[in-house]
Design a protein that fits this description.
Strand content: 5-15%
Order of helices and strands: HEEHH
Distance between the termini: 33 Å
Strand order of the largest sheet: 1-2
Shape: globular
Radius of gyration: 11 Å
């Protein structure tokens, strides 16, 4: 069982997940221009989407970002 936010994000990306982190005024969300492969979509829905908002944001913070810093 994975429990760290980083582990969840890494597994999602390993499965081919394509969501990218968007940070706007410290509000985290994701953006995707291409659909996730089925395995990544299932993993997101079963393991990440169900998390409390703060925990889900923690996982999203480990996704590649479209924001230039």
């Amino acid at each position: 069982m994975m429990n760290s936010a980083q582990d969840l994000a890494e597994e999602y990306l390993r499965l081919g997940g394509r969501r990218l982190l968007v940070m706007d005024d410290n509000i985290l969300s994701t953006k995707s221009w291409e659909a996730d492969p089925p395995e990544a979509e299932t993993f997101w829905n079963r393991e990440i989407e169900i998390l409390a908002p703060r925990r889900r944001s923690e996982v999203m913070s480990f996704l590649p970002s479209i924001n230039v810093t």
